[in-house]
Amino acid sequence: MGHWPVASPSMAHAQEPPEAMTVDIRPFDPKDYPAIVRIRNAVDEAHPTTVEERRHADEEYRATKYVRRRYVAVDPETDEVLGESEYFHLAWSFDPDRYGVWGAVHPAAQGRGLGALLFDGLEEELLARGARQLRAWGIQESWPASVAFLRRRGFHEKMRSWESRLDIRTFDMARFAHRRDPPPGIALTTLADEMREDPKAVEKLYELDCLASLDEPHVDPFTRGSLEMYRNHALERPGALPEAVQLAKDGDAYVGVSGLGRAEALPDVLYTGFTGVHPRYRHRGIAYALKLRAVEYGMRHGYREIRTFNSSLNAPMLGINVGLGFVKRPAWIIFGKDSFEGSR
């Protein structure tokens, strides 16, 4: 995600600009995890995170070729962390000179130049590293200050993604009885069940995921992250649910997947990860059957809601979600800056 708030709504029509703040910018320290979680949850209350989730996301980068760096803005008088910024390689669309960027300032400190100060520091370091392209995720269209912040710095919209939500407490499974079964010859199972029988289950799923991702809409060309990174995310991250990763099989071959994971800070909410089908098995109802199995899992285990994100260009998956009753929320915008040479 990426969020660069520079003015709270209450500041939007102020007659006088607020007084600039004096802060220290320093490298992130693990003791700062609670502070950055507090900031992230304050700027985006609808998608709260936890210390464990943020720590694990960082650990996935360790012992890899990918770079990830984070900085924090600290009040020199109180030592309170007021904002953060980071840059990182994109493991699944990797180019050594392309980086994702992220930043956030606590609402109580917004509108006083901290976002600009943090971003300028990132740019200087990225220029020194030879960066040529920047990407910023997680900017909701309903956040005009964040959108304007990036546009002023030369970012342009690259793609939009819909967040959609399904209230499974009122879901009528009987309406979809004709779609629940996969086509003849295809069996439905879960990653947890497969791992009990096949020591290469995760590796096989990784291969399917990479293949099915090739023709998904992307801002930049898809590249394979490492199998170890994939395994770590699928099995070790907080909220991982191998028993909720729905698989379709043709014999021993995996031909479809729709994964679910928990949101630690929202215990009654599930998130759909990747839903994909092997190119030779598409248009046969496999994705629909997998999605219905995922809904059944959520209903059976007492969850309230399933959330998912889909590129606005992915018409087939959007069609399935709309058919199931997912309701669209404001779109998320992916911004990009190409031929990066700094903003100033």
Write the layout of secondary structure elements.
Blueprint: E1 24-27, H1 33-43, H2 51-59, E2 68-74, E3 81-89, E4 98-105, H3 114-129, E5 133-140, H4 144-152, E6 156-167, E7 187-190, H5 191-197, H6 201-213, H7 227-236, E8 246-250, E9 253-263, E10 266-277, H8 286-300, E11 305-311, H9 315-324, E12 327-328, E13 332-337
Question: How would you describe the overall organization of this protein?
Answer:
Helix content is 29%, strand content 28%. The chain has helices spanning 33-43, 51-59, 114-129, 144-152, 191-197, 201-213, 227-236, 286-300, 315-324, and strands at 24-27, 68-74, 81-89, 98-105, 133-140, 156-167, 187-190, 246-250, 253-263, 266-277, 305-311, 327-328, 332-337. Strands 1, 2, 3, 4, 5, 6, 7, 8, 9, 10, 11, 12 and 13 form a 13-stranded mixed sheet that branches. The longest helix has 16 residues, at 114-129. The radius of gyration is 21 Å and the shape is globular. The two termini are 24 Å apart.
